Structure formats: structure tokens, C-alpha cells
Amino acid sequence: MSLAVMATSDKKELEDLLHNGNSRFTANMFSEVSKTNPKKSFVLSAYSVMTPLAQLGLASVGESHDELLNAIGLPNDNVTREVFSMVNTKLRAVKDVTLKVASKIYVAKGFELNSEFVAVTRDTFDSEVQNLDFNQKQNAANEVNTWVEDHTNKRIKDLVDPDSLSDDTRALLVNAIYFKGLWDAQFDKALTREKDFHVTKNDKIKVSMMNRRGDYKYTESAALKSQVIEIPYKGHEASLVIVLPLKIEDIDEVQEMLKEPTLLDKALSEMYEVEVDLSIPRFKIETTTDLKDILTKMNVKKMFSPAEARLDNLLKNVKDSLYIASAIQKAFIEVNEEGAEAAAANVFTAINRSLSGRKQRTRFTADHPFVYFLYEGNNIIFNGVYYS
């Protein structure tokens, strides 16, 4: 019995490390992406960026290694391996929604991965490894892009630009995540209406608003100056959380406040079930993010510097210094009457809650800019802002 208790405790500790690390990394990344997309809709998956960062952390040494693990909130290599091994097991077990995560490392022809890193990346991240001739730039890009399309239900296309490849390209770390879920209670398409959406106090446009009355977890957060609602998908393992500012003009302040992830956690813990007249826009967003720019602003810098990257454990028999020359994410989300679909893919190029009994009806009308979060369990896997 004591062994079982220890195992459960260890699992809980790993889950807490993942939740805390993912929440803070997501909040930091969201803040920086918000600044590069002012007054614009966007979607990102910070969750899926953590995998290549963890891989690079395990492939690096010295200060670069410490910087990478610190960014994702994990204390050492052993814990990193345990957390991501647990993540892959958890994601494969999610029921009633489609959630796929895939990882692949392409290595330049004539080179091979360090054998220890091969074992780690296969056992921990379930990564595939393949040699590729980067001198054949168009063919190499086509090969990678086809793999990404196949793992994102064709939602992410042209992730790798052939011109980003060169004779100096030694490896590509590619990661893809795909989600599709049906609402636990779907919206009736017959009730969808064209309504005003107030982009600002003085600027409005028409959007398709979906409408439904039903029981939802809800709260009004004084700390976030927002209404917060959770809309579950079938199986109740995944959900969409919307943070809607009480005032149209407060969206920038709310985004700034969400830099502190505990505020959102607190709001979720204060939710109670109530009947809601719910009205939210039908939307589709696609975003390309320059992760090199964003991560540098998040103080993840050394892996992009030839002098400081120290990716010593990535490849065998490489004399020149390896470093990350570019890092790109393409992300997609669609929310409609049936449910939601979301996908993201990253490429890193290496070159030399509590409920109360309250029962009342409330109104949640998302007719002005809001922040949204797609959760699996208690982990954010996608988030962004909707501006119309």
C-alpha cells in the first residue's frame, strides 16, 4: 500500500510541475504574442512549443541547458523525462475528443543523432527520426510539410519554407498538435444570427453569433474584471474557457493581467454551475508566429547564438557549433456550432475548481473582444484573443 501511495504522490507532483510550468510559459508567451498582434485576433499553442524546448534542453549543456529547462519550469533532466513521458501517456488516453501530438526530428544526410539522445527522444517524446537531404531544398521542405499536414488533418500547410534550408542545416525539430472536439451540448444552427460585434466602443461589425441556453460553469472575476465561462466538450476532459471583459475598453488590461497565471486559476476555482443565456461568435483564426523573436523576448536566447547554444548532445561527430537559426509556429482554431478544431505545428531549425449551489440565470454575450483558452484537463493547449 505504501508503494502505491508513493507512486500516486509522484504522479501528482509531476502533474503539478507540468501544470505550473505550462501555465507560466503559456502566460509569458501569450503576453509577448499579444504585443506583436495589437488589436488583432490570434491563436497560439505554447503547450506544443514546450516539447521541442524540452528536447533541446536535453540536447544541450551548461547555461543554455539551464535556460531552456528554467523556461518550461522543470528542475532537471530526470524530471523533464518523467513529465513528458507522462504527457504522452495522458494525451493518448483522452476520450471522446481527438487530440494528437506528434514529434519528428529530421537529420541532415551524412549526420546522425547522438545515440543517447535518440533513446531519450524516442522513449520520452515518442519522436520519429529520419535522415533528409537538405541540399534538395524543395524536396526536403515537401517531405516535412507533408508529414505536418498528415498530423494536423491538413490544417497546417507549408510550415517549412524551402528557402529556410541551406547547406548548413543539420537538423529540423518538428512538432505538431491537433485537436477536434464536439460540444457536450451543441449549438442549434437555426439560432445563429448576424449580430453587432463591438471591436471598440466606437467601431462595430457584423458577425455570426451562436446562441444557446443551458447550464455552464461560470463566474464573474473581480480580479480579472471579466465574466468567465467554461464550455465543455464531449467527455468533459476538454473545454473552452472564455474570459470576457466587463467593459469593451478593458481588453488590453485583461490581457496584461493574464500575465499572472494564478489569477485565471483562481477564477476557475470560483466557478459555479448556473443557467446561462450564452451567445458567442463563430470564428476561425490562423496565426504564424516567429518563435525566435518571441522566445528571445522571453529570455530564451542562448540556443539562437552560435557561441552559446552548446547543443553538444544533439549530433555525433560535429566539430562546428550547432545553434537554432529559426523557429516558427503555425496555429489554427475553428469554433462553430458543433464544436472546435485546432492545430499547431512548430519547426526549430538547428544549423552550424469548486462549485456552489447557487442557481440563477445569467447572460454571457461575447459581443466584444475576449480571451479564450482550450483546456485538456487542467492544462492549456491553445489560447488566444478574438477581435472579430
TrEMBL record:
Pfam families in the record, alphabetically? Serpin (PF00079)
SMART domains with a match to the protein in the record: SERPIN
The highest taxon in the source lineage is: Eukaryota
Alphabetically sorted, this entry's keywords are: Protease inhibitor, Serine protease inhibitor
Sample GO molecular function, one term: serine-type endopeptidase inhibitor activity
Which residues does the UniProt record annotate as the domain Serpin?
27-388
Query: Does the record carry S-adenosyl-L-methionine as a key word?
Result: no
Q: Which PROSITE patterns does this one have?
A: SERPIN (PS00284)
Its cellular-component GO annotations read:
extracellular space
Task: Locate the coiled-coil region(s) and give their ranges.
Answer: none
Q: Which PANTHER family match?
A: GH10112P-RELATED, SERINE PROTEASE INHIBITOR, SERPIN
**Similarity annotation:** Belongs to the serpin family.
Name of this chain's protein: Jg10211 protein
**Organism per entry:** Pararge aegeria aegeria
